[in-house]
Amino acid sequence: MLDLRVSKRILWIGRAVYPLANIARVYSFMLRPRRKEAVLRFLRYSAGTIAIAMLVMLPSLPALALGGSDGQSGAAGYVVFVWLLAVGAEIFFLADMIGVLAASPQFVLAVETSGASTALVTSPDPRYLDQLVEQLSYAIEHPDTEFRVTVQSLTVSPKNYYFGDNVNMYGGNGNTGISS
Q1: What residues form DSSP beta bridges with 152?
Q2: Residue 89 pLDDT grade (very low, low, confident, very high; cuts 50, 70, 90)
Q3: How far apart are CA 7 and CA 146, in angstroms?
Q4: What is the pLDDT of residue 34?
Q5: Which domain of life is it from (predicted)?
Q6: How many CB atoms lie within 10 A of CB 28?
Q7: Does any domain span residue 18?
Q8: Bridge partner list, 150
Q9: In the chain, how many domains are there?
């Protein structure tokens, strides 16, 4: 829980400060996990891990095929080590995927500034967030407005959730952006 307040033309969300004049957009929406992408990422990483393990294991195959006690035990130990690393990586990727699959959608209020900053707060009640959007938009238009409410903070990984609008730009010079 944290305080969201407007005081003296400044929006405070916890300890973060946003001048009302710099707020470009305030809106509420449902933040949904990227479940399909998480499964595809798991499959892609799994295939890559297995391919890399097979490639790394290739130099030890002649020693295993020829036999011999010295070369075989060293090569077998190397193969076991490579596959233990691969299994460890698979467990990590599986845990990452399960984290996304188990994540629930969240109702959030987003505050975007004219710069790169975006603040997200959440509430179990979407109507409450819609009321906050109205209060914040009123405060932007009426700088003498002051209020204080309590909201929940939200910590998410952008790679695991659909967030904001998707804009595709073609052409132009010097376009920059963020790719996921």
Answers
A1: 122
A2: very high
A3: 5
A4: 87
A5: Bacteria
A6: 20
A7: yes
A8: 3
A9: 2
